[in-house]
Specification:
This protein is mostly helical and 362 residues long. It is 67% helix and 0% strand. The longest helix is centred in the C-terminal third of the chain and has 24 residues. It is elongated and about 80 Å long.
Amino acid sequence: MTAVDVFVGNYTLIDSELFGLWLNGYSAQDAALFLQKSGVLQKADVSMEIVYSDIQDQYRLFFGLEKLLQSPPKLIDQQIYQMDTDMQRQVIERYYQFDSVVVREILGRKLSSRNRKDMDDVSEKTRIPIRSCRRQFDNLKRVFKTVEEMMGSLVENIKTHYLLSEDLARQYAAIVFIANNRFETGKKKLSHLSFEDFVFCANQMITNWSYSSVECTVHADMDVDLDRGFLHDLRELKMISEKEVLDEHKGQVISHLKPSLTKKSRQVLEESFKNNSKAIINIACGLNHSKDVRDIFVDLVEKVTEPCMSAGLSGSDMEAFLNAYKDTIVRMDVFRLQPHMLAVWDRYMKTLKLCVLQIYHT
């Protein structure tokens, strides 16, 4: 009798290309046609029937994995689909990745079942298949519902509960923050702003304006909400709009800018200083009201960036102005006697400056 060695394994093999097609919303039939057009069948010298059968097997695997992917720690703990840790992480990361153009359309909308119906319009506008748009919407909604009430860092909570990379978790954190604070992002005035613009600004606000900011005196340790005490303190910046203070501040700023800007740019900034300063201060004072918080991006564009761009100021001009506007305030007696307000001013301006420069698309 001949001895035969038999090895039986159940290691799960995932076709990376097919997984990508499935994530992108292709049906099994569409995926087969895609592979046929790409010339894969001719290179492999296999029939369409064999390829389609293999695709169906892979799709059954993907749909089985999807139930676990909706709660990634379950995928790590289960024993049905045998995968090494790197493969598990890759599958999770890819499942939760999204198209910026799709999320830009979703951004600012309430993550509700009713708005999920609008994914048909999003799909038509972005030319991303409807299944993929729905998956991305459902992922955003799921992450939001999981972390919106949690204490601690948004990024760390998302990494813990969804096992995502730092970069992807930070993007989800920004989306959650925008949704929770109901920031207006859909108005026509904001159509030129990209998803990346909003993510950058939201993460700056999380770092400096939320309860988890190092400057926050209330130990709420919650990224998702703005620090109400800080927003209340911002109302005291109204004194910067008083004529004597405004004139002194203007003189300090223009003097500071002389070595670095052209005469034309300085003249523009000198003529527009009052309006620019009042816009920046009014935004600060208004953040104590929910509606003004929601409209912060609209206000930044309408009251700060658009007027300065119309006046012909470049991005470098704007950066020089904002640096001077922020830094020269420390020389003024009105602030020198109030160290607490200097801290409030610095906390406000370092974030406002970064946000304005990010959205300053000349």
